[in-house]
Each structure stands twice: as structure tokens, then as C-alpha cells.
Amino acid sequence: MPVAPPGKRVLLVGDHDDRDFRDVVVWLEQHTVLARVDAVPAALDHLRGHLPPHVLIVAQARPGRFAGRQVERLHAVSPLSRLVALLGTWCEGEERSGRPWPGVLRVFWHQWDARMIPELSGTDFPRSALCTLPRTTSFAEHAAQAAGAPPSSLRQGLVAVHTPSAQTYRGLSDACRGAGYATAWSPPSQPPQLSGVEALLWDAIACDTASAAELWRLSRAVGTGRVIALLDFVRRGDCDRALAAGAGAVLAKPFLVGDLLWHLERVLSGRCA
To answer: What is the mean pLDDT of residues 162-187?
Structure first.
């Protein structure tokens, strides 16, 4: 009988075939002991017949796909499993106009890498252990704990910030300098001074065709995979265009500082090149 690969047990329930979730599913298949089911009844059967998963992910591409009572049924059968909502683009307004499931960690598809890879891979990246916090923890408390975790070691390298806003530059510079990086402002109104720059933060609203051309020029100057695109509204098309233009990562605003530092460490280590 084949031996299961090492790794955390994960049960993925719901829209695991959705386009937004394709990269997440690939990562889970490669790094965890993953089981996938489409609906809650199948998930309940799986939970009753197998060891409880470390993490139980409910993938919802659109609001209303699952009711809160269904999520609570899953929790009742496997109370020690950490509940995570993996959310698609259409769920972005749910906290304002819908009824998000209480006590469930919400992670959008474009937040997965920085939020969940450190948790599920067991790395020692200096951030809060999101999956070990109680269900009553609010997003504000998650953010406060993440912000209060000091880096285990300071990093090095020059990070350029390509933004028209001096205020945005100061905020991003403070976050980077707090982790040990040096920073430089590269406003779009001036010729870019990128000598010695090891990574670049590209601040934009979206990544349409014209913006992708600018991103392509910057990524060639800094190095393919060494630009992090910071976008206001991340859609799958924007993400695909940014990555095709040479970005090493795409981060949706607003974001946790820990998310930004995780991506910076990743691109500077060459894992996105």
C-alpha cells in the first residue's frame, strides 16, 4: 500500500475547479495531503471516515455558494480543524453587503501565497501563526498580531518604489526599512534611476495593456521576476498580464505588511525568477 507523502492534511470543499483557484490547488497537491470534494455531504462523509484534516478549506467562487450553517456542520464534525474560506473575486464585497461566515479565516485567491504557504509549509517566516489563532479572532486582531511580530533577522538590498504618490512611497518605504531594506523613490514622471536596485514595487490601479507595457520595461531594467505589482483591484486577467510582463508577484491593496515582506524575500531569493 503506498505511503502518503508527509505534510499537513487538508480537505478542500467546494469550487476547487474554479479558474481563480487553479494555482492554489496545484500548490496544495504538491505540498499537502489533499482531499477534494464538491459538496458538504461528501465532506461530512470524508470527515467521518478519515483522520481529521489540519486545515479545512471551503472554496467559494461566488457569495452564497455555502450557507453558514453548512460550515458549522463541518466544524461540528471536525472541531480541531482550522477553518479557512478560500474566496474568489466575486466575494470581495461580501463583508459589506453579505453575511460572511463568522470565525472563519478569509483568504482571497490572490492572497494565498503570502497568507497560507508559510502556515502550511511549516516555514519559520516571522509572522503570526494564523491557523493557530482562535475562531473569535477578528481581521483587525490578525493584522495587529502580524504587525507586532518582529523580523527574526534584518534583510539587505535596495528596493525601488515606482509610484506617483509621495505618501504611498513613505508608507512602503517605512515597511521595507523596518525589515532592513534600503529604499529609493522612482516617480513615473522622472526617468527611472534603477542602478543597484534589487527589487521594485510597482504601484498601479490595474494592469491593462498600456500598464503591462510599462511593467515590462521596468522588469527588464530590474530583472525578470524582481518586480512586485501592487494593484487596487486584482482580477485574474490583471494578474496574468502582470506575471507575463515579468512581475514576480502580484499583491492586492490593501495588504498586510507581512504579505509584502514575504513576497520581497521570495523575489530577492530568486524563487520567482
So the answer is: 96
Q: Which three cell numbers stand for residue 99?
A: 453575511
Confidence at residue 49, expressed as pLDDT on a 0 to 100 scale:
93
C-alpha separations of 256 from 111, 140, 143, 245, 259 in Å: 10, 11, 7, 24, 5
Q: How much of the chain exceeds pLDDT 90, in percent?
A: 68
Please name each of the domains of the chain with its CATH number.
9-148 (3.40.50.2300), 158-268 (3.40.50.2300)
Residue with cell 486577467: 237
Hey, what long-range contacts does 97-104 have (CB within 8 A, 24 or more apart)?
Answer: 98/63, 98/64, 99/68, 101/58, 101/66, 101/68, 101/71, 102/68, 102/135, 103/135, 103/136, 104/58, 104/71, 104/135
Residues 6 or more apart in contact with residue 161 via CB below 8 angstroms = 168, 169, 172, 173, 176, 183, 184, 185, 186, 200, 201, 203
Instruction: Give 62-110 pLDDT, tens digit per residue.
Output: 998 999 999 999 999 999 999 999 999 988 876 665 678 888 999 999 9
Question: What is the distance between the alpha carbons of residues 24 and 210, in angstroms, rounded to a whole number?
Answer: 28
